[in-house]
């Protein structure tokens, strides 16, 4: 092929945090399927400084900028590279993808299927390892016994089925756990004495066990490639990765009993056909819509995610999915199975973080800058508990571009703290009870209204914008969040990239804040959510700041969901408040005057949001858009929910392809791009400023 010529040139390669980016001379060897690099062009005749096998690799243009891209090898090694401009990046990416596809297909087509093998695991791991039986009589060298079985002459080697891949992946997961236990046991030995952690034989055992596991992972990846080639002909080029679904429905393949398998076209459910026929964006108004809070009703949905049934039944599907992922892989473009989804959109989840509007409004009632910063920290730390629906970690729907969510809260004025002594902190945990605010019968002057709107402003990268305001108290919050998820082995990490801005217009103060990372742990057993990372809250005008640390649980010991933080005055470097506890349980606040306050989040009053009925919502509002998926999940019909979800995703891809072909940019509805962020089109600070200007002109 004309496109298979060798190419070479200088690229920047990211080494580490200390060294950073360095220029290196790269050579793409198409014949060998290798990407090699040298210190410079003059050293090209010497041994390469590094080499990547491109068979089975994934070439991914980065979302960070138009110059960066990554090469993820099947071995797990990754090169992060940067070209001089977008054109040069595209040149390298396209040539690398062509070479990768050629050598990947060659593996599947030219190598015969591997012979059947039986795996026997002899455990030397910890007795605490799940599913592993301790056998002290065996030493660490007898980690694996792999028996090769010769097939009788003339018999065909059977094509490996997905079930077999699942079995192998499960065995390898156990072996990896045993290998970690072995290394941990060696490293825990003393550094002196008869048997030490520096013993040459033990060091060799550590190295060879690691090399063995790496080799097994490489072999397993080749098995996957063979299976993909046999099932689908070849692997597609590009960076979009979809988990290898069987030809028949998951229900038929992974559990007994027949299930309805929806063929394409006319046999699909009528509701799915209706979703596919939703009008194109050009036929829908993109003008901002003013939502009347009087049309909204108190929400009666209470979809707690405490059901493990679907996860238990579909464990083999999860194993099948995990077998295709590599450590550090970006999951943004990975299609996840439907049964792990929450029954709400990510945009609605952001709204649920506002479920304590009394604490939100009370921020501006603080009499001093110090008190207002402390109140904001109190509100911030109480928001995460209600944002999670139940103890089980499930994933909200990925919003489609243009999706919106609207709601509001009504808060009786008598329930909002006006000074430090009247806040929720005045009550002991035992005195606090769970309430649902019922203010339907109150007059307009008796309550405050907090309005909320969220919109999915970008698909790649996935960016959401959300905005909330209380006009009566002249305060609002604007934020944009880019959710970036990565596979971390037996957990999934989600980085919340972005920034929020709280504006207290009565005081002329602005507070910037960020969000912690989230982790879904133990995804093969009982999945649960953990927050981690450091976040900062700053107010430039007053000089007050807060530093909050969400601590992830250490491997041994330690508490779950621990959080610590402090509020200080930057000019004097004086700490005015410290906080510690658990973000989903009890928080302890200690002030500079020696006073201590406890907040039990499980007993804290919750205000239900108000949402318009489905029949009054627009076609791209979250609940109406996902209603068929949600209804199917409530009914426990995973196959039907998957069909509805797939129809929405196909519609989004088709519209995105059409926009690309016609070079039509996407127009957002409520948020405008400003620099690197997104801002609500009519924020309160603009409308209040305009009203003040008009009043001044009138006077």
Automatic annotation (TrEMBL):
UniProt feature, compositional bias: Polar residues: 117-136
PH domain segment(s): 4-101
Keywords, in A-Z order: Acetylation, Endosome, Golgi apparatus, Lipid transport, Lipid-binding, Membrane, Phosphoprotein, Transport
Cited Pfam families: Oxysterol_BP, PH
Cellular compartments per GO CC: cytosol; Golgi apparatus; late endosome membrane
CDD domains: PH_ORP10_ORP11 (cd13291)
Stretches the record annotates as Disordered: 104-136
Catalytic activity: a 1,2-diacyl-sn-glycero-3-phospho-(1D-myo-inositol 4-phosphate)(out) + a 1,2-diacyl-sn-glycero-3-phospho-L-serine(in) = a 1,2-diacyl-sn-glycero-3-phospho-(1D-myo-inositol 4-phosphate)(in) + a 1,2-diacyl-sn-glycero-3-phospho-L-serine(out)
Cellular compartments annotated: Golgi apparatus, trans-Golgi network membrane; Late endosome membrane
Sample GO molecular function, one term: sterol binding
SMART domains tied to this protein: PH (SM00233)
Family matches, as InterPro entries: OSBP_sf, Oxysterol-bd, Oxysterol-bd_CS, PH-like_dom_sf, PH_domain
Domain of life of the organism encoding this protein: Eukaryota
Record has Transport as a keyword: yes
BP GO terms, sorted: lipid transport
Protein family per UniProt: Belongs to the OSBP family.
Subunit: Heterodimer with OSBPL9.
Function: Plays a role in regulating ADIPOQ and FABP4 levels in differentiating adipocytes and is also involved in regulation of adipocyte triglyceride storage. Weakly binds 25-hydroxycholesterol. Interacts with OSBPL9 to function as lipid transfer proteins.
UniProt protein name: Oxysterol-binding protein
Origin species: Chunga burmeisteri
């Amino acid at each position: 092929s004309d496109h298979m010529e060798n190419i070479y040139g200088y690229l920047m390669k990211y080494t580490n945090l200390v060294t950073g980016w360095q220029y290196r001379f790269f050579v793409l060897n198409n014949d060998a399927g290798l990407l090699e690099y040298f210190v410079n062009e003059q050293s090209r005749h010497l041994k390469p400084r590094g080499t990547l096998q491109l068979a089975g690799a994934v070439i991914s243009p980065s979302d960070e900028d138009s110059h960066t891209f990554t090469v993820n090898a099947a071995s797990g090694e990754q090169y992060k590279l940067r070209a001089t401009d977008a054109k040069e990046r595209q040149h390298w990416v396209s040539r690398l993808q062509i070479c990768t596809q050629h050598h990947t297909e060659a593996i599947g087509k030219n190598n015969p299927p591997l012979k059947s093998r039986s795996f026997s695991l002899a455990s030397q791991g910890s007795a605490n390892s799940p599913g592993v039986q301790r056998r002290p009589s065996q030493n660490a060298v007898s980690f694996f016994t792999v028996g090769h079985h010769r097939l009788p002459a003339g018999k065909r080697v059977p094509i490996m089925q997905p079930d077999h891949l699942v079995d192998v992946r499960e065995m390898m997961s156990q072996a990896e756990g045993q290998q970690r236990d072995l290394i941990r046991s060696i490293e825990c030995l003393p550094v002196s004495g008869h048997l030490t952690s520096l013993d040459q034989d033990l060091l060799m055992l550590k190295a060879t066990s690691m090399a063995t596991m790496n080799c097994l992972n490489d072999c397993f990846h080749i098995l996957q490639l063979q299976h993909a080639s046999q099932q689908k002909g070849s692997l597609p080029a590009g960076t979009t990765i979809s988990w290898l679904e069987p030809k028949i429905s998951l229900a038929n393949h992974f559990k007994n009993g027949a299930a309805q398998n929806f063929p394409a076209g006319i046999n699909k459910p009528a509701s799915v056909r209706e979703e596919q026929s939703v009008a194109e964006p050009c036929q829908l108004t993109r003008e901002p819509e003013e939502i009347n809070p009087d049309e909204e009703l108190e929400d009666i949905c209470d979809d707690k995610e405490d059901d493990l049934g679907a996860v238990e039944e579909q464990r083999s599907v999860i194993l099948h999915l995990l077998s295709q992922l590599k450590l550090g892989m970006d999951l943004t473009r990975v299609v996840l199975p439907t049964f792990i989804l929450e029954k709400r959109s990510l945009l609605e989840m952001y709204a649920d973080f506002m479920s304590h509007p009394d604490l939100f409004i009370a921020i501006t009632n603080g009499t001093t800058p110090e008190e207002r910063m402390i109140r904001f920290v109190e509100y911030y730390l109480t928001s995460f508990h209600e944002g999670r629906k139940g103890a089980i970690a499930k994933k909200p729907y990925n919003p489609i571009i243009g999706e919106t969510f609207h709601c509001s809260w009504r808060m009786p004025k008598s329930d909002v703290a006006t000074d430090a002594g009247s806040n929720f902190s005045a009550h002991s945990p035992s005195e606090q009870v769970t309430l649902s605010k019922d203010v339907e019968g109150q007059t307009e002057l008796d309550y405050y209204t907090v309005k909320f709107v969220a919109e999915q402003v970008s698909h790649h990268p996935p960016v959401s914008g959300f905005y909330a305001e209380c006009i009566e108290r002249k305060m609002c919050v604007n934020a944009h969040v880019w959710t970036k998820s990565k596979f971390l082995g037996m957990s999934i990490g989600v980085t919340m990239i972005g920034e929020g801005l709280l504006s207290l217009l009565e005081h002329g103060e602005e507070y910037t804040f960020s969000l912690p990372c989230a982790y879904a742990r133990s995804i093969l057993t009982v999945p649960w959510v953990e927050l981690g990372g450091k976040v900062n809250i700053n107010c430039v005008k007053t000089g007050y700041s807060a530093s909050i640390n969400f601590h992830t649980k250490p491997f041994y010991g330690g508490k779950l969901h621990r959080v610590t933080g402090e509020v200080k005055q930057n000019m004097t470097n004086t700490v005015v408040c410290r906080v510690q506890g658990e973000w989903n349980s009890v928080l302890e606040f200690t002030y500079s005057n020696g006073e201590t306050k406890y907040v039990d989040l499980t007993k804290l009053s919750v205000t239900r949001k108000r949402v318009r009925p489905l029949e009054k919502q627009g076609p791209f509002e979250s609940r109406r858009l996902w209603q068929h998926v949600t209804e199917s999940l409530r009914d426990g019909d995973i196959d039907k929910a998957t069909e509805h979800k797939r129809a929405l995703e196909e519609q989004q891809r088709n519209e995105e392809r059409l926009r690309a072909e016609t070079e039509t940019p996407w127009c957002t509805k409520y948020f405008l791009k400003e620099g690197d962020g997104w801002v609500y089109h009519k924020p309160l600070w603009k409308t209040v400023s305009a009203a003040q200007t008009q009043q001044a002109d009138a006077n």
